[in-house]
Amino acid sequence: MSRIGVFVCHCGENISRTVDVEQVAKAAGEIPGVAFSCDYKYMCSDPGQTLLKKAVAEHKLDGVLVAACSPRMHEKTFRKAAEAAGLNPYLCEMANIREHCSWVHEDRDMATAKAKDIVKLMVERVRKGKSLAPITVPVTKRALVIGGGIAGIQAALDIADAGHKVVLVEREPSIGGHMAQLSETFPTLDCSQCIMTPKMVDVANHPNITLFTYSEIEKVDGYIGNFQVTVKHKARSVDESKCTGCGICMTKCPKKKIPNEFDQGHGMRPAIYVPFPQAVPNTPVIDRENCTMFQSGKCGVCAKVCGPGAVDYEQQDTFTVEDVGAIVVATGFKLYTIDRKPEGSPIQGYGEFGYGTIPDIIDGMTFERLASASGPTGGKILRPSDGKEPKQVVFIQCVGSRAREKGISYCSKVCCMYTAKHTMLYHHKVHDGQAYVFFMDARTPGKGYDEFWRRAVEEEEAVYIRGMVSRMYQRGDKIVVMGSDIQVGVQVEIEADLVVLATAVQPQDGADLLAQKLGISYDKYNFYSEAHAKLKPVECATAGIYLAGACQGPKDIPDTVSQASAAAAKVMTLFAKDKLERDPVVAKVNEKYCVGCFACKKVCAYGAIEEKEIRDRQGNLVKKVAYVNPGVCGGCGTCQATCPSKSIELDGYTDEQIMAMIEAL
Amino acid sequence: MNAKANKNHVTSIEPAYYQAITEAIRKEAAKILKDETVVGVVGYLPGRRKGTASPALVTTVEEAEKLIFSPACVNNLSVYLTKAKKGVLKQGKVGIVAKGCDMRALAGLMTESQLQREDLFIIGVVCPGVYGFGVERTGTLTDANIARKCRECTVHMPEGADVAAGTHTELADLTPEEAQELARIEAMPQAERWAFWKEHFSRCIRCMACRQVCPFCYCEQCLCDKNRPQAVENSPRPAGNMAWHLVRAMHLAGRCGGCAECERVCPMDIPLNLLNRRMAQELKELYDFEAGLTPVDKGPLNEYKENDDQSFIK
Amino acid sequence: MHGEHIKHDFEPKIVAFVCTWCTYAGADLAGTSRMQYPPNVRVLKFPCTGRIDPVFILRAFQKGADGVLVSGCHPGDCHYMAGNFHARRRFAAFRALLDFVGVDLNRLQFSWVSAAEGGKWVDVVTELTERVRAMGPMPEFKELEHEEQWSTFAEATVDKSGAINTPELKEAYDSIG
């Protein structure tokens, strides 16, 4: 850079009041390589910008420095002006002599001296600057949604409705997730399946959605706009293209006493089954571990009765590779298994509560199934041990949640509301029954939520006891619940017929493994990390991957649906253009000098650095070097500071620029 | 380790001990060359002068019979597998004679993708120590002629080697001279410390022997040789010397295996290993990192923990 | 202090290496809030503290800085997720090294200043400036710039008359003839 123009702005009087702008312009003009300098009242005004453009043309300037306000304010303005004048916008820089100088110093001499110094530094930056061109990345306008619960369904429908193709992958035989298991939903008490199943059917019928159930993510390659995802289609043992969903196989299956996962093990299902009657797709799957045919090779009843011949015992897992441009992760949650300490986990378990040993201590999801019209009891509240109607039910909140000493310190967010709902459902179904709730706090922020909770307490006669339960044990056919009421300061002992634990919400099993495949980060509980807690709540740090629902943190249905739609909106924004344009401030590798120690790769938070093989003409490996994928690089420059030989360099902040600025100090 | 409790602690290591290692190395090297496990073995041959040894790459069984190990085998041979000698590995699997400290360098180079374990056959040496600089080379190693770094050796056993030659024997009651020197410098007032290093660094003639001998200085272009921009002045003047040694210490922090070859080869007797030791000590204190005998995923300055110490940050 | 500038005998040169997202923005906020602080600081903007190489700090001292400030986002706030975490380790190590060779760490300040902490920026800059002012100019690196090879060695071995006073050197010189 040898013909630099320096434009010093008065900013009305904002700068000129404490900085002698004429002197600054004069001093700038004396810096070697500065071909033109001037001062002007308002550089950002139209006449100011015109002045800049004219000067570029007249003085054949090859770099521009505007000494004015913060670049955070007007860098874009002046870079645009410079571009209009035929300069590369990255050859235009700003010297901040307002926020960093005139506004913070009173002494005119010293402020002027500082402004001159700032200009001197920044002239060096312009001098060593390079023309940069925006990076364009092609975008495959097809999205992958992982998880077919309400989050995944909502995201898939929104993206598909916008006209883009969507691949929805669900691990279980049917979509629906946890919401399909719920009986009624707070705060309106409308039936969950009534609002859920139409959406499930929409997914199945949507021309833009390809649904893969009983499938998992095997491998993820590529980057934003260009992912290649290998999906493993687990062998269903039933040919989806042939099955008509008549269900005769299920009725004829001789093995019918398998605890049904969908009913939390309280109902029974055959070995060939659909998880629940409204399943989408309505194609059964053979549970090979419980199927007599697979275990002993003798049976084959389902194949015999299947008219279209859809049952296929020989079916193998298959793999497909899906090209997608964006990924929405919506893998949801599981409930805390409270009875034992999970292996290798810091979480302690609640063996003292007798869960798993006393049959009438159940978790909230089991209660949902008992209360559900399609559940194992047909919607009657009957306790598991003897099928009697419980007259005293104790609900315990915060089991697992908010218990630092037990390993989980967060609040599971939904339990206060669903416990209030449970007391109501119970009261509606067992009029002479009494519900007790042990709680630490009632947390009910949300539209209509506190009103709902108050209704449970004030109108539906639930007795709320503030305190925790210390011990529970079986006495006859009752469960003795010992706890404390800390408001009154007394010990409480309740003889309950049924105990319902509001257990903590946890990420799904294998959430960490999926995160590793996707290259996204997760917290110590395995909840996925958003890029920014406040301003980027649905984006992952890895570009092109978005989060929806409880996989990111405990959430209720409205929040989940909102986030799913937000994630879908992000995907649509990405798909709105054919090519993704990115700021060219990215790192580049000098392949001549890179020795492939991959320190850069180790510190890169974006996973933007890959190993590249350099081969000679005969195809022999010469060496391995780092390669920066410009579509993924975030532009922080940590790699360059880490590289011992500085063989990786961040455009826009090169060592040459920085050193030149330091030399000019 | 408690000296009294261990009967292998002796007051001198006799030539016979080294001779036994020599025999073991010869036997192993000959074997792996003969059955073509390796294309060559990097080891030591007797030097031209008595009581010396020089690094060598042997490729035949006959040559292998001449390999030795003695207290004069001071060199860290891992440097012969990187940099200009990288080509050696392209020929096929290579055997290498490695002391504990050399093994740490090999592990570090594996961490940094410069070496692959499967490309190496490591003949580990249960090393009781080597000669220091300018000492009497009698063939017997004693308190009087052992190298400073060996006085505080924690890697006598070359764990993880393909074979190990020798039995565990070490000199008893060695004074930790380097640790004492480190403590002495740290106890100095700050100005005195500056004066100490200023004096040492101003003698530096920038021969770059420290860089040349270091297994970790394998960059194809050293930052300190770059002139656009010139981060470190490269003429032997005090300013550039100070910068060079600080950059060197910083670049080796969390990587250095502590072989102290830099200090050994320094013609101006600058105690370079003190800088390496100080950095290692800091990384041990802050991040519980120690250079080990097996490769790790990430070095201490290539990773972080959210709760790392930040007491120095306002 | 407002409106009135006290003349000092020594105006230290302070160099600040800051990240663009937090500290640079925090300094902008100090400006928009019209806070006042000593005009000694010169700010160099980086995308992230992760980009800041210890060599820059060294070079700044060599080029006459009396004090250096490195400031970025608070842990967890990094725009690039982890740049400041890497910087934290790197500078912890570099500090230890500088301390070991005898650099007074009072001249080197690290801080986390968020985009909302205009006041903290003012505090950090003011404190460092005043502290360094009280310490006086930093002589160490500047002296080195002006010294030549052997000069300290020569000082130790050449007496006031210029004669070589170590027997070894004398012998060496004599042997040259």
UniProtKB/TrEMBL annotation, chain A:
Keywords: 4Fe-4S, Cytoplasm, FAD, Flavoprotein, Iron, Iron-sulfur, Metal-binding, Methanogenesis, Oxidoreductase. Its cofactor is FAD. Residues 234-263, 282-316, 585-614, 624-653 form the 4Fe-4S ferredoxin-type domain. Transmembrane segments: none annotated. InterPro entries: 4Fe4S_Fe-S-bd (IPR017896), 4Fe4S_Fe_S_CS (IPR017900), FAD/NAD-bd_sf (IPR036188), HdrA-like (IPR039650). GO terms for biological process: methanogenesis. GO terms for molecular function: 4 iron, 4 sulfur cluster binding; metal ion binding; oxidoreductase activity. Belongs to the HdrA family. This is Disulfide reductase. It comes from Geomonas paludis.
From TrEMBL, chain B:
It comes from the Bacteria. Keywords: Iron, Iron-sulfur, Metal-binding. The keyword Transcription does not apply. Residues 194-216, 247-277 form the 4Fe-4S ferredoxin-type domain. GO terms for molecular function: iron-sulfur cluster binding; metal ion binding. InterPro entries: 4Fe4S_Fe-S-bd (IPR017896), 4Fe4S_Fe_S_CS (IPR017900), Helical_ferredxn (IPR009051). This is 4Fe-4S dicluster domain-containing protein. It comes from Geomonas paludis.
From TrEMBL, chain C:
Keywords: Iron, Iron-sulfur, Metal-binding, Oxidoreductase. One of its GO terms (molecular function) is metal ion binding. The keyword Cell inner membrane does not apply. It comes from the Bacteria. InterPro entries: MvhD/FlpD. Residues 14-136 form the F420-non-reducing hydrogenase iron-sulfur subunit D domain. This is Heterodisulfide reductase subunit D. It comes from Geomonas paludis. The lineage of its organism: Bacteria, Pseudomonadati, Thermodesulfobacteriota, Desulfuromonadia, Geobacterales. The gene is hdrG.
